[in-house]
Amino acid sequence: MVKRFFNRFYLILILAFLYVPILVLVLLSFNASRSRVMWGGFTLEWYGEMFANSQIMEALGTTVVLGLSSAALATLIGLAGALGIDAMRKRGYSLTLGLGNITLLNADIVTGIALMLWFARFMKLGYSSVLFAHITFCVPYVLLSILPRLRQMDISIYEAARDLGANTLTAFVKVIIPQILPAVVSGFFMALTMSMDDFVVTYFTKGAGINTLSTMIYSQVRKGIKPEMYALSTVIFAAVLIVLLLVNYVPQIAERRRKRICAGG
């Protein structure tokens, strides 16, 4: 009984540590007062001002477009790289995978400064440099997502498709892709999350005139965070929560409906 109590207490403590700051942020987005310590009444004013603020909307658009673009390109590059690495012999596989893991273990500030120096030498810092930088640090996450699934895949199915007359492209699309698709989707969303969440690499490679949400919030820290940013953060949190609920519960609902139809038939 005592052990169960402490287990539950520990779980509640961890959840509170994770979600209480988000709850405070949500409450501040509805606070009519600009103060973070005084409640001035319920209001939706900050949400209206958020959508009317062109700077916030521009930064949000840049963040979303940059995240989707870098995640899509990183997924394609990571998929091709995973297929190549999986076909290597054991020594080459381990060496290449180890080199890829260096970028995961490397400090963001080192990656950011290195990419800044590289891009400043060969191109003008701007949107393109940020896009290439995000692709660079997103590819290893895609590799780590797809490679384990490739190693678990039954290659005999692909060989059987080839023996039955399917060409290489058809066998790849019809056999391999369906088996690794969950890992590809997982890698895409992981890359998207890392891209939209990044600050350090973006800060060093963005140049003048480019702002994402993270760099814009950083520029407001000295002056004080505006309440509109609380509203924006709440909208983003709500959107992520809705997506997670749909991903987790829609397949279950569809499966229950399918079973009812099969049982009724």
What is the strand and helix layout of this fold?
Layout: H1 2-29, H2 45-52, H3 54-86, H4 90-105, H5 108-122, H6 127-152, H7 155-163, H8 168-197, H9 200-205, H10 213-220, H11 227-264
Helix pairs in contact: 1-11, 2-11, 3-6, 3-8, 4-6, 6-8, 7-8
Please characterize this protein's 3D structure.
It is a multi-pass membrane protein. The chain is 82% helix and 0% strand. It has helices at residues 2-29, 45-52, 54-86, 90-105, 108-122, 127-152, 155-163, 168-197, 200-205, 213-220, 227-264. The protein is mostly helical and 265 residues long. Helix 1 packs across helix 11 (227-264), helix 2 crosses helix 11 and helix 7 runs antiparallel to helix 8 (168-197). The mean pLDDT is 83. The chain folds into two domains: 1-43 and 229-265, no CATH class; 53-225, MetI-like (MetI-like fold, Orthogonal Bundle), CATH 1.10.3720.10. The longest helix has 38 residues, at 227-264. The protein starts with a helix and ends with a helix.
CATH-defined fold name of the largest domain: MetI-like fold
Q: State the domain count.
A: 2
The H-level CATH homologous superfamily of the largest domain, spelled out, is: MetI-like
Major sheet description: none
Instruction: Tell me the Rg in angstroms.
Output: 23 Å
Give the second-level CATH assignment, the architecture of the largest domain: Orthogonal Bundle
End-to-end separation: 48 Å
Report the β-strand fraction as a percent range: under 5%
What is the SS-derived class?
Answer: mainly alpha
Helix content: over 70%
Mean pLDDT: 83
What is the N-to-C order of secondary-structure elements (H for helix, E for strand)? HHHHHHHHHHH
Silhouette = globular
Poorly predicted ranges:
none
Level-1 CATH class name of the largest domain = Mainly Alpha
Number of helices: 11
Number of strands: 0
